[in-house]
Amino acid sequence: MYLKNSKIIVIKIGSSLLVDQDKKVRKKWLSSFAKDIQKLKSNNQKVVIVSSGAIALGCKKMNYLRQNLKLDKCQAIASIGQIELMNLFSKTFSKYKLNISQILLTLDDTEERRRSMNAKRTFENLFKLNFIPIVNENDTIATSEIKYGDNDRLASRVAQITNADTLILLSDVEGLYTKNPKKFKNAKLIKKISNLDKDLKNISIRGMTKLGSGGMNTKIEAAKICNLAGCNMVIASGLHYNPINQIESKNNCTWFISKISKLHARKKWIISSVSPKGELVIDDGAKKALNKGNSLLAAGIKKVLGKFNKGDHIKILDIKKKEIARGLSSFSSEEVNKIIGCHSNEIKKILGYISKSEVVHKDDMVEV
Question: Residue 40: which CATH number?
Fold first, then answer.
């Protein structure tokens, strides 16, 4: 039910699902996975894939053992493996007429608001072009200080940025158990968690840390991020063929249900900025447009107060200087001063480069 009602779905797959213990690529599995994605796309659902595997495929190509590699060598191997990974996806997905694109992210790309906004717009445009973004941490340049360290948390951040309804973490286990199922026969699969703090009190996560590449701890951390973003999350086994179809047909997995609505989560994120960097005074026409749920355009701006950068949190005031909304600016204060009162089709000519038409997009704005 949760999956069927999801408009945007982020799916994380680990390297163990792509490459087996004998370093053989699991081509049949990837084909079955592509078939699942084709089904989601036929239902007009938008899909993002967060995939590990660059280093594993690089090691396979170069015949290296990963455990023997130092960080700088690992980065070079990731660079080699990244092409192998994308070729593998491209070859498999093209058989099902699925278009793919590649996005490499570092920690800063999701933690810094301006950069996360840029990433968000890229995802949105790829959805419009009917492409499936395949995301990976940029292992080729990321050092240990700026790495996520695992793709579970990266996937949860991608789910947050894309405003996803569901994050699927495909693991090597069915989901979260009351005890470690590899040690205890009486371990029971927990099908649903509605209250993270309360429901996890009686579960020993220790001893389960070896499950999956990131371990169960990182999956719980990912669930917390999703919960605050108004996104449901599911841990399911990816070892079967057609793993997404298995979730829908058998539901033999663990669902983490968020009680916060996506809209509320995003508004909370925008409104929670400690100190807005500037203010925009708008005319009555723009005020009416905002009240109807529209974006703020340059034509309706009368005055710019303060200095701010693209992506900064700003206040929006009416003619009487009363605060009516807050939002994230798509332009710097310097740029807004140049386009103030202008129509959207004049922006390119004035600034000398192509830019957005909205000064504050409706998705990045909260009325107060």
Answer: 3.40.1160.10
Contact 195, 52 (CB under 8 A): no
H/E element, 367: strand 365-367
If you search the block for the tokens 């701006």, which residue do you land on? Answer: 301
Pair (231, 287) in one structural domain: no
Please indicate, yes or no, whether residues 338 and 243 belong to a single structural domain of this protein. no
Helix axes 71-94, 54-62, angle to 10 degrees: 100
Query: For residue 207, is it left (φ>0), alpha (ψ between -120 and 50) or beta?
Result: left
d(CA 18, CA 51) in angstroms, rounded, equals 9
Note whether 158 and 10 are within 8 A (CB): yes
253 and 277 fall within a common domain: no
Domain count, the chain: 2
CATH number where 345 lies: 2.30.130.10
Cα–chain-centroid distance for residue 349?
34
pLDDT tens, position by position, 138-182: 766 655 543 555 788 889 989 989 999 999 999 888 899 888 787
Q: Give CA separation, 249 vs 3, 96, 179, 245, 246, in Å.
A: 11, 22, 25, 6, 5
In whole angstroms, what is the distance from residue 167 CA to residue 347 CA?
37
Q: How far is CA 306 from CA 158, 191, 342, in A?
A: 32, 51, 20
Q: Is the pLDDT of residue 344 over 60?
A: yes
Q: What percent of the chain lies above the pLDDT cut of 70?
A: 90
- The reply to whether 61 falls in a domain is yes
Report whether 113 contacts 311 (CB < 8 A): yes
Measured in Å, how far apart are the chain's first and last C-alpha atoms? Answer: 34
List Cα–Cα distances, 217 to 2, 13, 47, 140, 345, in angstroms.
Answer: 24, 17, 25, 25, 50
Residue 61 phi, psi (nearest 5): -65, -40
Domain-located, residue 1: no
Enclosing domain of residue 329? 273-367
